[in-house]
Amino acid sequence: MGRAHEVRAASMAKTAAMKSKQNAKFAKAIYIAAKSGVPDPEMNLSLKKEIEKAKKAHIPADVIKRQIEKAKGGSGEAYTAVRYEGFGPENCMVIVDCLTDNVNRTYTSVKVAFGRCGFKLGVNGCVAHMFDNVALFTFKGHTDEEVLDALMMAECDVKDVEMDEEYVTVYGDSSDYSKIRQALVDAFGEMEFDEDDTTWIPQTYVDLDEEGMRKFERFEEMLDEIEDVQDFYHNVNR
Fold this sequence. Notes:
By secondary structure, the protein is α+β, with helices and mostly antiparallel strands. It folds into three domains: 3-72, Integrase, N-terminal zinc-binding domain (Arc Repressor Mutant, subunit A), CATH 1.10.10.200; 80-129 and 204-234, Alpha-Beta Plaits (2-Layer Sandwich), CATH 3.30.70; 131-202, Alpha-Beta Plaits. The chain is built from eight helices and eight strands; from the N terminus they run ααααββαββαββαβαβ. The strands form two sheets. A four-stranded antiparallel β-sheet has the order 3-1-2-8. A hairpin with a 5-residue loop joins strand 1 (80-87) and strand 2 (93-100). Helix 2 packs antiparallel against helix 3 and helix 2 runs parallel beside helix 4 (61-72). It starts with a helix and ends with a strand. Mean pLDDT is 87; it is low at 13-17.
């Protein structure tokens, strides 16, 4: 089905949380985006992106509004972004991204998940070099030729443009996320993206046997229970 299909499947396989955890996850992301710039989505693209993602996940409007108001107030929690990397069955590779107001608490929780599931927690950078950090956009309604022409007219340097069935997927450098997104909106108007984010895509994939998959799924379940976990990336074929 092509790499675009694999990327969508991998993205859908990111850690899924319970509803309360989902609310907390998006609340943190919205708060940090609002604090990092103007707390107005029309003037802060990062905030606009987080709000759109939250709406797609059916996060209540009052949760979104409350975090923006909190950011406007100039006070509130101080969150730190932390990343944990390591290896699982068959040397599969995992990246766990967190936002936390207590690094020691988060480290302990993540370390326990690694240990109980037979995973090995590594040092920063031990697996990230085997992933590509990309800007990823997936949408319907246009052809890959139309999209490539529009991006070339806007002088956007992208890694690849693929078409898989009715979906077009654009890959670019993560640092070019805003430029690519704006070029697409300028060319085609306000769009409904199926994927609209910066993400980590593995350069190679690993197949697990039944026992390895059991451990991997248990690891996912334990990460789901950690409120500070924001995203989970891996190179396991599902």
